[in-house]
TrEMBL record:
InterPro entries xref list: Cystatin_dom, Cystatin_sf
Keywords annotated in UniProt: Protease inhibitor, Signal, Thiol protease inhibitor
Name of the protein this chain belongs to: Cystatin domain-containing protein
The species this protein was found in: Kalanchoe fedtschenkoi
Signal peptide from the UniProt entry: 1-24
Classification lineage: Eukaryota, Viridiplantae, Streptophyta, Embryophyta, Tracheophyta
Residues covered by the Cystatin domain: 35-114
């Protein structure tokens, strides 16, 4: 009888320790993971896809100059956050794009915008 009570108590404590860890890992969204090899043709093609899709809507011609950083997050598919420079009318500007690669392999541009650079102002009187 004493062994039964100690076993039951042990199981209750074990469950009390495990359940919060399982529920917190499922409810917390995954953080963005840095893609270390941004020269990977797959990642570069995602930036080019974002530029092409943006061009269809904005009617402007951009050319990818350099992919600076890329992150991913697993959702229902994989979400990519891309930071790159592109040229338009011989001017280079910085952009950010969010591209979703769905489970079926199709791609969708979710966001595309120019990144405004904030210049440091000194000697303000």
């Amino acid at each position: 009888m004493a062994a039964s009570k100690s076993t039951t108590l042990f199981l209750i404590i074990l469950i009390a320790c495990i359940v919060p860890q399982i529920s917190s890992s499922r409810s917390r969204p995954q953080d963005w993971e840095l893609i270390k090899n941004i020269g990977d043709p797959k990642i570069v093609s995602l930036a080019e896809f974002a530029i092409d899709e943006h061009a269809k809507v904005a009617h402007e011609s951009l050319t990818l100059k350099k992919l600076h950083k890329a992150y991913y997050k697993v959702v229902t598919g994989t979400l990519y956050r891309l930071f790159f420079t592109a040229t338009r009318d011989r001017h280079t500007r910085r952009y950010i794009a969010l591209v979703l690669v769905k489970l079926d392999g199709s791609q969708k541009l979710l966001h595309f915008s120019e990144i405004a650079l904030i210049k440091r102002v000194s000697n303000i009187n």
